[in-house]
Specification:
Order of helices and strands: HEEHHHE
Largest sheet: 3 strands, antiparallel
Radius of gyration: 28 Å
Number of strands: 3
Distance between the termini: 75 Å
Shape: elongated
Helix content: 55-70%
Length: 150
């Protein structure tokens, strides 16, 4: 009887040991493959460009008819600058930059900004307007942190 009770404990204990060994081997293999990835990332670092956080901007959108309800847009964007000089200019002229962005946003109706294509349309319009203000190629990208139409 005592022998049967001992066997009942040995089987689950052996299973736990096997599971522990398999887990340790799997984790060790996963860590080894991640280490290779980190080495590659260190070899070729990604160039960092200055990002200016414009913050949240809210404005109304263009109405196509008098019967259309007033719709609003809120965007929170970051502007990727080509260099530190552009970043400094934006930082020192935030009112002008905000004014340009609001002007662009108000030129669209809500239906023109719906979906991914609408977001891209607005992104390119803002970049074009800022290129006129800052010089061609000063802005490399615009990133949306928030994009809401109400």
């Amino acid at each position: 009887m005592k022998r049967l009770e001992r066997i009942k404990w040995i089987i689950p204990l052996a299973l736990l040991v096997v599971i522990g060994i398999v887990s340790a081997v799997y984790i060790n293999m996963a860590t080894a493959s991640d280490a290779g990835t980190e080495e590659e990332a260190e070899v070729e670092p990604c160039p960092q460009r200055p990002l200016y956080h414009v913050g949240g901007i809210v404005t109304d959108l263009k109405r196509t008819t008098e019967m259309d309800p007033t719709r609003y847009i809120r965007v929170d964007i970051k502007i990727e600058c080509n260099d530190e000089e552009t970043y400094s200019f934006i930082e020192n002229n935030t009112s002008r930059v905000h004014n340009e962005i609001i002007s662009v946003m108000r030129s669209f109706a809500a239906y023109e900004l719906s979906g991914e294509s609408g977001m891209e349309r607005l992104r390119h319009s803002i970049m074009d307007r800022l290129d006129r203000l800052l010089g061609q190629g000063s802005i490399t990208e615009i990133y949306y942190i928030e994009f809401v139409i109400q």
